Amino acid sequence: MGLDSVELILRTEEDFSISILDEEAEKVRTVGDLYNLVLSKLDVTPGCLTSKSFYFTRRALVDSLQVPRRSIRPATRLSPLLPDETRRAQWQNIREHVGLATPPLRIPADLKQDLYKRTLFVSSAIAVALCVIALWRGWWAVPVFIFCAIFWILLSISSISLVERLSARLLATELPADTAGELARVVLSLNFEHFAPSESKTMPSDEDVWRRLVDIICDQLQIARDEIVPNASFGDDLGVS
User: Is the pLDDT of residue 82 over 90?
Assistant: First the structure.
């Protein structure tokens, strides 16, 4: 497939929120072939919703990162596109372009574990110090130990939560997904109602699909509408490489 063909397939996928496999695209010879393929792909199955989320997410990645659409596929790894030194700013830009609930960056697991250990050490030291002070002043031992144990548990839980919230903005650099496809699935799970069709929505008619497809081909190939007929060959009649 040439560059024009790839761009046309990507544009069709994005506008109709469908997924077209490479082997399916290779069989498309005429406008009618593409039209029938689009009709066969339009449904409301979970796989279709995942596709909708992917093309929605891909558009946000393309717009925010300024990369070609064809460079973002479901298996595309995100880390090379988001280097550590600029990741936080880039991720914020991506979240703004998505415009829906999007997972934040996470604190790396090893760093989070280190924070937990330090927080537990500090809270334990405080609880032990209070226990020693209480015993030194001669207070009753059993209530003191019970109080210190409860205090230590509550202090540890609250301290860990507080430290994690405070450090998230400075230390969160780990991506919530490894690939663009994984990110799309997370976005779908957080915004299912946005992608799932409501009962009031109806499937587009065959005429609506044809009209939208013609608009896409006209815009993508910069050709007149009267040239786009079902038996028009992309290669021979429309000059698609």
Answer: yes
Per-residue pLDDT at 87 exceeds 60: yes
Residues in the chain: 241
Mean pLDDT of the chain: 78
Ordered by start, the domain boundaries in the chain are 3-104+176-227, 109-171
Alpha carbon 72 to chain centroid, angstroms: 12
Q: Please tell me which residue, 13 or 107, carries the higher pLDDT value.
A: 13
Among all chains, which residue has been given the structure tokens 């976005």?
A: 187
Report the 3 state secondary structure along 50-92: HHHHHHHHHHHHHHHHCCCHHHCCCCCECHHHCCHHHHHHHHH
Angstrom distance (rounded) from CA 12 to CA 173? 34
How far is it, in rounded angstroms, from Cα 37 to Cα 154?
60
106 strand-pairing partners: 174
pLDDT higher than 70, residue 151:
no
Structure-token pair, residue 92: 């914020």
